[in-house]
Amino acid sequence: MNIHTIILAAGKGTRMHSSKPKVLQTLSSHTLLEHVLIQAKAISQKVHIVYGFGGNQVKQAINDNSINWVEQAQQLGTGHAVAQAMPQIEDDSISLILYGDVPLIRSQTLKRLIQVAQDTDIALLSVMLNNPTGYGRIVRQNHIIQAIVEQKDADTTQLAIKEVNTGIMAVNTQLLKKYLAGLTANNAQNELYLTDIVKSAVNDKKTVGSILATDEFEVAGVNDKVQLATLERVFQKNQAIGFMQQGLTLKDPARFDCRGTLRFGQDCDIDINTLIIGEVTLGNNVTIAANCSIKNAKIGDNVTILANCVIEEAVINQGACIGPFARIRPQANIGEDAKIGNFVEIKKSTIGKGSKVSHLSYIGDTTMGDAVNVGAGVITCNYDGVNKYQTIIGNGAFIGSDSQLIAPINIGENATIGAGSTITKASPEGQLTLSRAKQITMKNWQRPTKD
Ligand code: UD1
Ligand code: MG
After folding, report:
1. Least enclosed by CB within 10 Å: which of 178, 354, 366, 425?
2. CB of 220 closer than 6 A to ligand 1?
3. Is the CB of residue 77 below 6 angstroms from any atom belonging to ligand 1?
4. Which atom of ligand 1 is nearest to the CA of 75?
């Protein structure tokens, strides 16, 4: 039977105090709704999203043509929300109901639930909570489910029940349609409760099955920024555990965040407070010290990244050493065994094999050969206020400290630039070029004195 997933996402999420609809808040690298959608797509033939508040914003953010978008203009209850999607769903199918603000649900759990739904009419996902306040209680008689009673409608005996409805359920679509059509808002909240379909099924002598969620965070909803942060930590912890089980050394998994995809070889070691964003690949034996931010980067074997580096859209080739306090910007390609030291910024530049830029430099729009030594404080002046120009530095060149290379400029192979030079013309290979005023000492000069 086809599985149709209906994701309820009509809520505004007032408690977020945000201009964005709640389901567009982000957790790791995806919005809440995207997390649910990824799991839904893994197990269903068709996904329907019931939207209300900020609908266009939600549609634009998700931007997925395969989804059937269903508007619920007025929020009249969960039963009403699900009913909006029914005309698009064939009777001979299973309807799986998910929530756009329950982001950590896993497709393995949903698979188990659907298995139960194959042999029953309604399959509920429930969870045991020490504090069940606020949730619908699962009422059983001789272990058999009789009804779900909402907090506001429950009596004292029912309020003591710790097994609660997560809201997630898989239902025979034909019966779901029938029971939704019969719902009334005759309850404490004057809403059309989806949960009332359970009582109808029991009255109809239908079977109601259930499975227990083993992890309460998997079924936890997000209503405010505190819950959002709680689930972010749960997500990060689970991800970190997965990485460690695959051999990554994390000095402290509680101080590691990956918002994207991390691939790594053997014997990689990451110290505290590292942030991985986007697609990051580490080769074998990569060491990353504390407080680094690495986004969309490819890092080769045996690379050492010292503390406090920011690396973005760059390639660091094997054996290179970066930092501490280096900034490697987009389109930087750092050659094998190269060394980029403290307070060095590299942008849109290729640094050749074994070259060193060790202190306080800006290197932009540069092609640097192999075995170049760049002294402290060297700056490539790549910008005239309008256009950007290239600097080319040949193999084996030595750039003296505190020099400025005014691009476009070409420094020949094995050329030496004297320290403190401002170089505006091509510097020939193998020779010393410098541009400095001659040093003089004023014999009779006196320091000024106070009048
Ligand atoms: C619901 C369940 C309750 C369960 C709890 C789990 C019902 C009647 N109750 O209660 O048994 O324990 O979830 O969290 O189903 N929504 C819409 N349109 C609506 C109403 C709701 O899209 O008209 C969406 C909301 O945005 C929200 C979700 O459905 O994401 C749940 O709605 P809410 O009113 O918060 O249900 P609860 O009272 O929490
Ligand atoms: Mg409610």
Report:
1. 425
2. no
3. yes
4. 23
| Every domain of the chain and the residues it spans | 2-219, 248-433
Distance CA 164, CA 212 (A): 10
pLDDT in tens, 128-171: 999 999 999 999 999 999 999 999 999 999 999 999 999 999 99
The conformation of residue 136, written as its DSSP 8-state character, comes to P
Q: Which two tokens stand for residue 404?
A: 């400025």
Report which protein residue has its CA nearest ligand 1's atom 25.
11
Question: Measured from the CB, is residue 50 less than 6 Å from ligand 1?
Answer: yes
**Residue 80: active-site member:** no
The 10s digit of each residue's pLDDT in 167-197 is 999 999 999 999 999 999 999 999 999 999 9
**Spacing, Cα 38 to ligand 2 middle (Å):** 25
Of 42, 59, 153, the residue nearest 105 (C-alpha): 42
How is domain 2-219 classified at the CATH fold level?
Spore Coat Polysaccharide Biosynthesis Protein SpsA; Chain A (3.90.550)
Instruction: Return the pLDDT at 341.
Output: 98
Q: What is the pLDDT of residue 177?
A: 98
The DSSP output letter for 67 is: -
Report the CATH superfamily, name and number, of domain 248-433.
Hexapeptide repeat proteins (2.160.10.10)
Nearest to 194 by CA among 97, 319, 70: 97
